[in-house]
Amino acid sequence: MGNPIQLSDELARLFLENTSSMVAVFDKEARFLYLNSPNEATLGYTPAELQGKNAFSLIHPDDKDRMVSLMAKAFDGRLDKIQSLTYRIINKQGRVRHVQATFDTVRDGSGNLDKLLCVADDITEKVEIRTAFAESEQRLRAVMDTVPVAIAEIDCSGRFQFVNAAYCEVFEYSLEALERMSVKDLAVSEESGQRLLLLLERLVEEQPEPQRWEGRNRTRTGRILDVVVDWNYRRDEEGRVSGFVTAISDVTEQKKMSEALVQSRQRYQAMFNHIASGVVVYQPVDDGEDFVIIDFNRTAEKIEGISAEAVIGKKVTEVFPGIRDMGLLDLFRRVSENGRPRHHPACFYKDGRTTGWRSNYVYRLATGEIVTVYNDETERVRAREALRESELRFRALVEYSADHIFMLNSEGAYLFSNERVEHFHRTPGDTVIGRRLTDLYPPELADRYQRLVAHVLADGCGTSFEYEVQGPDDTHYYVETLYPIYKEGKPWAVGGICRDVTTRKQYEKELQQKTGELERALKDLRQAQRRFVDQERQRALSQMASGIAHDFNNALSSIQGFSDLLLQSPEKFSDTPLVKRYVGLINTAARDAAQVVRRLRKFYRPSDEETIEPVDVNRLIKEAVALTEPVWKHKTQARGAPIIVETRFQEQLSASGNRTELNEVLTNLIFNAVDAMPEGGSLSFGTRREAGWIVLEVSDTGVGMDATVRRQCMNPFFTTKGEAGSGLGLATVQGIVARHQGQIEIVSEPGNGTTFVLRIPAAVNREHSTDMIEKTEAERSSLKVLVVDDDEHQRLLLSEYLKADKHRPDTAANGIEGMRKFADGWYDLVITDRAMPEMNGDTLARTIKEAAPGKPVIMVTGFGDMMDAAGEAPPAVDMVLSKPVSLDRLRHAVRQVLSGEAVSS
């Protein structure tokens, strides 16, 4: 064994002895040559005890081979330095310690390797902390996944990073489904989901103190949950917010119970305040000798003529000193002591403020308080004194009544009858007592009467019936009312009132006759009105029919002609500019033909009759002008009296109205103007905003109207056109404007034309967040879209449209195949046809919405215009597009459904 290493530099020795790191030097046999004093704290041996011993004797068996190999490489010259080597040693006490060390080779004066320098630190505490932290995290994850509270981790954008089993159970989604979702997908609406994402952005930016949040979420099956969310920030190693940890509690039932509890409290408080008896609650004081009033209901306020605020908190002997004399105070004390309820019968109460008769019922609550429920018996006592007088008075009323008043026993015998019986049965009143029903009524009626008497006695409820009696001069009608008379709580006899209603019956017959006559007259009037309205509508429709047929045939001629040229001359396909020109003309003609069909839809749409919405008045006028073009342009040109249309529009004007009805107003005014210009002329339209109105002016250069015609032109059936007119056009205009709460003014002079000035309420401006739409488009720039259509050409066309916008289409040939693909994959959007075999588009859309409520669905169908005209909108479809559909219309529809809008086109 060599000598311990000698350090010539005293300063270096001081450093080695005072450093916190362990320093050791080994020879080639791994024997200790030098150890500084910090080694003793970790190894448990003094430097002297380890001097000359083999270092591998301290190495943990699992790390020894690795350490032997590394040191061998170092002494062989293959390693000059070993950095951050971690291994375990076993100290003198037998404990395992973790060490992190750096080894350097030491050469002698000749440059040969003969020693190894080791600088090490005891990292046992760090390793144990790290191990404990990992075990703690694993335990925490296990706990989080087993606790009944729904827990989730989300990143700053709201996407789920971790959810426990309870979270999946609450929201009815699988773990795999939630990993693809965001908290926005659990919101009850698209709008609330966007607000939640904006809230997360604000929290990341401002980092306020976490506060409990209450809100509502939607489960996979569409159930709405009331939830309470406890949350906190999740931060990275640098302290930056990297997400949120949330714990969600379903408080739907608790909220219902809380609301029920509040309602119950309100209900019982209402009962307390509105019960017909006075109720007072007392708290015993002075060892039960006196009582303080702690509650006083409204009936008690009315009885005593004093407010609850004036008595609560005061002793009963201060407020009602007379209770001593009436003995009620002693009763309070006895009930307070023994807890047995007691009734205090009506007694006279008197003090300096009030007097009267009171009856009390007193009982003790479990809390030791006593309650008295009492009534003001003053009126009852007075009523009892007047009962005999009242009985005499009512007996007189019965005797002199115009009705027959009587009483029967269970056998149908008379127990009582007033004198009026003689008028009904020709029998003196003093002879009817004891006689039976069979003595006064025909057998069949008497039998029916007896059964009703038995019914009233058995069920304890009254009844009425009507019958007629054929007299010597005329038929008489009577109404009998039977009711039970109780004795000792049981039906004892039957009371009855018989009334002669012959005169009333006669009046009813006359009234029914007059009512029938009025109903027939009203029916005739409605039929006449319907015929006039239909005639007016047919007249307008017939005027447009020839022009629409003309336009449609023109469009079909272009399509057929240019397609024939291409099909019959294949050599033209090599001329690209010519082919492009022909195809462009065919496309334009097809669009014109589709527009002609849509004009018919705009002429009459029953489903829109009650719809009030913002209407672009400039666009509405353009549509009305285009719709009536066959009348004001083609027909007038054919007869050599052309009409020129001019417009003066103020931009961006939106009125609040029904599009179909306003279109009918403009159509009628245009027809009226055309009729007023038999020699041709100018028809002009102007729009402007005026305060809260949108003003529309329709002017012509026609024959004009004098003052008499101006006053009457709005009256129904007034016309200056003879048999050619119905007189309903301008009356219809006035009615529609009135329903819109608008105004109409006519400016006209004979020979100077006519101007109709219409004022319609302006629509309320609706602000749209274009930034949000652009953001949504940017986020959804490349969508995975499922296209379902049984027509192969339509599938190909829609797929090419989508690929043009860099979307990823997938297709299905029918509804069943489409549903299978949707269930197996994830799609951002579904586009479906309506009429398909096996499963139609309506059923497919509904099934998709049940599985994914927020999934947007667009229906592209040849029935679109008819659905729009009939107001038919499948509930599970976000938007309906009419075939043929262009790329621009499809692109616009995709943008609208992704931004939350849903408008048929």
TrEMBL record:
Transmembrane segments: none annotated. It catalyses: ATP + protein L-histidine = ADP + protein N-phospho-L-histidine. Residues 547-764 form the Histidine kinase domain. SUPFAM superfamilies: ATPase domain of HSP90 chaperone/DNA topoisomerase II/histidine kinase, CheY-like, Homodimeric domain of signal transducing histidine kinase, PYP-like sensor domain (PAS domain). Residues 8-78, 136-207, 390-460 form the PAS domain. Keywords: Coiled coil, Kinase, Phosphoprotein, Transferase. The keyword Coiled coil applies. Pfam families: HATPase_c, HisKA, PAS, PAS_3, PAS_4, Response_reg. SMART domains: HATPase_c, HisKA, PAC, PAS, REC. Its EC number is 2.7.13.3. This is histidine kinase. One of its GO terms (molecular function) is phosphorelay sensor kinase activity. CDD domains: HisKA, PAS, REC. Residues 504-538 form a coiled coil. One of its GO terms (biological process) is regulation of DNA-templated transcription. Residues 784-898 form the Response regulatory domain. It comes from the Bacteria. InterPro entries: CheY-like_superfamily, HATPase_C_sf, HATPase_dom, His_kinase_dom, HisK_dim/P_dom, HisK_dim/P_sf, PAC, PAS. The modification 4-aspartylphosphate is found at D833. Residues 83-135, 211-263, 463-513 form the PAC domain. The lineage of its organism: Bacteria, Pseudomonadati, Thermodesulfobacteriota, Desulfobacteria, Desulfobacterales.
